[in-house]
């Protein structure tokens, strides 16, 4: 299984997640990238220090998210809901495999299927309306998809916090907390993907 972890600059959270999963040696192919990443930047100094403390090897250089990476991935796991939304807006066609790390491991498949179905119906209604009005629909689509949007809001309100803490610019203790949070959810990820393999 090919897994792509995504954060903002690809110098803290997503490369830490990549290194942790690679260290677990569970038969995954793993890469990481950033929604706004530059090319070739090293892992942040604090992230590197924490990885060394934990004896997790990493030789990381940042890379931006590309269509090729998204195509390569069987599963795209972002660090926050904002990263997920940014990817969905920038690149369409990957919704079926795009989740935050935490929501992927914490939310039941039934709830996901319902959400995906609702999102698809909203998108269908928006596309149909756009074709009928030659693209000029403003917020008309929201009224057209009101029931679906209300149910989406209700389901999403019941979901847990799906964001991984951002340590950028913080002291080393925050990086350690982020490492422990990533480790917890990556262990859950391994368990969930083992069930599906």
Automatic annotation (TrEMBL):
Keywords: Hydrolase, Protein phosphatase. The keyword Lipoprotein does not apply. Residues 1-192 form the Phosphotyrosine protein phosphatase I domain. Signal peptide: none annotated. Coiled coil: none annotated. Transmembrane segments: none annotated. GO terms for molecular function: protein tyrosine phosphatase activity. InterPro entries: LMW_PTPase, Ptyr_pPase, Ptyr_pPase_sf, Tyr_phospatase_low_mol_wt. Pfam families: LMWPc. It comes from the Bacteria. The active site is at 7 (nucleophile), 13 (nucleophile). PANTHER family: LOW MOLECULAR WEIGHT PROTEIN TYROSINE PHOSPHATASE, LOW MOLECULAR WEIGHT PROTEIN-TYROSINE-PHOSPHATASE ETP-RELATED. Belongs to the low molecular weight phosphotyrosine protein phosphatase family. This is Protein-tyrosine phosphatase. It comes from Salimicrobium flavidum.
């Amino acid at each position: 299984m090919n897994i792509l972890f995504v954060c903002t600059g690809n110098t803290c959270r997503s490369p830490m997640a990549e290194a942790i999963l690679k260290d677990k040696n569970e038969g995954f192919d793993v890469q990481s990238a950033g929604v706004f990443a530059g090319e070739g930047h090293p892992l942040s100094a604090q992230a590197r220090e924490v990885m060394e403390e934990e004896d997790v090897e990493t030789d990381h250089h940042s890379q931006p998210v590309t269509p090729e990476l998204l195509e390569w991935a069987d599963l795209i796991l972002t660090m926050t809901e904002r990263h997920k939304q940014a990817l969905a807006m920038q690149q369409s066609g990957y919704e079926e495999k795009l989740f935050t790390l935490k929501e992927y491991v914490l939310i039941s498949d039934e709830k996901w299927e319902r959400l995906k179905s609702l999102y698809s119906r909203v998108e269908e209604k928006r596309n149909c309306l756009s074709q009928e009005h030659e693209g000029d629909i403003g917020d008309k689509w929201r009224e057209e998809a009101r029931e679906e949007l209300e149910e989406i809001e209700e389901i999403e309100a019941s979901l847990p916090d799906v964001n991984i803490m951002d340590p950028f610019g913080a002291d080393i203790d925050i990086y350690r907390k982020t490492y422990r949070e990533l480790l917890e959810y990556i262990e859950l990820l391994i368990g969930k993907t083992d069930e599906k393999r």
